[in-house]
Design brief:
The protein is of the alpha/beta class. It contains 11 helices and 8 strands. The chain has a single domain, classed as Rossmann fold. It has an 8-stranded mixed β-sheet, with helices on both faces. It is globular and about 55 Å long. It starts with a strand and ends with a helix.
Length: about 350
């Protein structure tokens, strides 16, 4: 696999995000102030390039941004996806980490022993919430303390993507040309980020981009994030209650900004919010939106995706099912049994994605 590493230093929107982050309630048991986490504002992102017989040294004239899911701490799951797409499309795949995820968070958040100790310190011998685990404790503690963090991290990530696009358009990316067409492959919560990017498109960077979503695209209030690998049940309930009540009523939420980016996010919270404009977007842009959902996905259900895009745009959605045990979090489990079968369905999904993005 050909992987290039590029340093990213956050500049665009940094002061705004810092001010908002300083207003959030601290996550007590994590013992850190998020505005002091330097890994989040200065980090590496990666570009997977196709296997070519010879390297001409010229820049690529197109690329695909790959956005990951919620509570991911490494790229392990996504590297085979990126490699397959890069070689199928003969285009570079940009692995760009979202705010406070992957290599943008403290290493301790990925340490099972450290997180389990914090769980024990907080709950002792008392009852623990549904689906709480060392895998999701850091995210759960942060969002339960202040659910606004979910939106703030998404907003920061979008500013980061705009800065990345500024750098590409300014000719400052060493692999991708300034005129390159940029499409998106998005999984899970990366789909929601992409939907906000396309439906707001404040700077016009994605007005012609294609978006392919896998296990993604649901309205927020029809997702189910309670999972040992995502967040605990109490945190998910807190998050849902906040964004379906307080957040959408500006008179009760002093942190609301009311700009296009925020309105695009709000329109993907519940069916009645911005429904006409949201459904018109998907209806008019069916040619550049493709979606594969999974029948047994309990986190991002097909019904929630349909609620987001509307019945008139259902032609861009395909529901699949696999003849082996899978989940939203692990769509292609790595086991010795039925390896050929799993390989077949992996390639079926990513061949569809490559065909659409090609």
């Amino acid at each position: 696999m050909n992987i290039s590493t590029i340093r990213f230093v956050e500049r665009l929107g940094k002061d705004e995000i810092l001010r908002k982050r300083q207003e959030t309630s601290p996550a007590m048991f994590l013992g850190c102030l998020e505005e002091q986490i330097s890994e989040n504002t200065s980090f590496d992102y990666f570009i997977v390039t196709p296997d070519r017989a010879e390297n001409t040294g010229s820049k690529y004239n197109s690329a695909v941004l790959l956005f990951h899911g919620l509570n991911e701490r490494n790229w392990d799951k996504y590297l085979p996806w990126a490699e397959y797409l890069a070689n199928k499309l003969d285009r570079p795949i940009i692995l760009f980490p979202l705010s406070m995820h992957i290599n943008r968070s403290p290493q301790s958040w990925s340490n099972p022993r450290a997180m389990q100790k914090l769980i024990n310190d907080e709950f002792g011998e008392g009852p623990r919430t549904t689906n709480l685990s060392f895998l999701n404790y850091a995210l759960s503690a942060r969002l339960k303390s202040d659910p606004f963090r979910f939106y703030l991290s998404g907003r920061e990530s979008i500013y980061n993507v705009y800065q990345l696009m500024n750098e590409i358009r300014g000719g400052r990316n060493k692999l991708i040309s300034r005129e390159a067409g940029i499409d998106i492959f998005a999984y899970s919560i990366g789909g929601l980020l992409s939907q906000v990017l396309l439906t707001s498109d404040v700077q016009g960077y994605f007005s012609e981009s294609k978006l392919f979503m896998f296990c993604a695209g649901s309205l927020f209030n029809e997702m189910n994030g309670s999972s040992k690998m995502i967040m605990d049940g109490e945190t998910f309930e807190t998050l849902t209650n906040y964004f379906t009540t307080k957040f959408i009523y500006p008179q009760h939420e002093r942190r609301i900004l009311g700009d296009n980016l925020e309105q695009a996010f709000i329109s993907h919270i519940a069916c009645h919010l911005g429904k006409e404009k949201r459904e018109a977007f998907y209806r008019n842009n069916m040619h550049r939106v493709g979606i594969i959902s999974l029948k047994q996905d309990m986190v991002i259900p097909t019904s929630g995706i349909l609620s987001a895009i509307g019945q008139d745009a259902r032609g861009c959605l395909e529901e699949m099912d696999f003849p082996f045990h899978y989940s939203h979090e692990i769509p292609f489990p790595v086991t010795k049994e039925n390896a050929a079968e799993r390989k077949y369905f992996f390639e079926k999904v990513f061949d569809r994605a490559a065909e659409f993005l090609g």
